[in-house]
Amino acid sequence: MYDLFGDIKQNNLLKRANCSNNYTAPHIPYVGNKCAIVCYLIYIFPKCKHFLDACCGGGSVGYSMFAYGRAERITMNDINKPLIDLHIALNNGTHNINFEHPKFVSRDSYFYSIDRIKSGKYTPLDVAISYCYGFGNKAGNYLFEKNKEKLKEIAHNMVCSKSLKERRLYYMKFIKQLLEFLENCNKLENELGLQQLERLQQLEQLEQLQQLDRLQQLDRLQQLKFMNKNIYDIDYSIYDCVYFDIPYDTDNKKIYYNIKFDHAKFWDFFMSLPVLAFASEYKAPEHIPLVKSINKRVLMQNKKNNNMQIGKEKVYCNDNNYKIYNK
């Protein structure tokens, strides 16, 4: 038996996570994505008929709930309209993304796409570029430093050029450019680790998008729906279970898509919902029921600290009596 994305279906995603690096169903690369811990998250939630991923972001939770049979129908919502438009385009096949031979996105091309998104005159490709080539998968800062951009472009073309002749040519350029680059580095491990050099992260992220594109061929596509609403404007009565991946409550208050996120307001709203609801955060008011703490790596660490940081993602529920049954 095969699941939605062509892999052998396993009833328990935790087993799959333990034997491979494929922790999740396909998703859009996006800041704060839960792909690394989704194997735990979806077994905190009960099986249900209609699941709402209310702040879906890249969609790792919603797609995983769907792919692994935790919910019959999924609605994915996000206040970020370009992101939802990309989800819809990938699932409908109405996009202009070349997955077979993607062109390298230069710094100038990246900011051109960002400007198109800001003006509202964007394509799905512009939105994909903004995240796949955005530092930390944020649509704002270009992924590569200026002194590494040329080397990365050559490496990209070495892999993605259409003909074998072109790929060989770029391979020779890559080796030459690499040697010149390394000569200018005082310490390889501090400037450019070989693993990072060989890992074309943006290409791996394009593969995730390509798997979402395959959904259009499936009869079950109508069981996935998308919407672009403020969480306070949603009718929650039609859902059995809701999950909120809200912005973290940090000391630096930020504006998210022109809206200031009020955490105190959210928690009052969360506890008043008439349906079973869950939310992820690092902290919450004491009266909010905590159902699970999950250790996770903090990837966007402070540059002053080169050690890998471990954080605790906490999952809260609006039902004081809820227990995790993993059924």
Describe it for me?
With 327 residues, the protein is an alpha/beta fold. The chain has two domains: 13-79 and 229-317, Vaccinia Virus protein VP39 (Rossmann fold, 3-Layer(aba) Sandwich); 107-211, no CATH class. Helix content is 37%, strand content 15%. The chain is built from twelve helices and nine strands. It has helices spanning 13-19, 38-41, 60-67, 81-92, 107-119, 124-132, 146-160, 164-183, 188-191, 194-198, 201-213, 263-272; strands at 48-53, 71-77, 224-227, 241-245, 255-256, 259-260, 276-281, 290-298, 309-317. The strands form two sheets. Strands 3-2-1-4-7-9-8 form a seven-stranded mixed sheet, with helices on one face. A two-stranded antiparallel ribbon has the order 5-6. Helix 7 (146-160) packs antiparallel against helix 8. The longest helix is centred in the middle third of the chain and has 20 residues, at 164-183. The chain is elongated, with a radius of gyration of 21 Å. The chain starts with 12 loop residues before the first helix and ends in a 10-residue tail after the last strand. Residues 1-11, 17-22, 186-195 and 302-307 have low confidence and may be disordered.
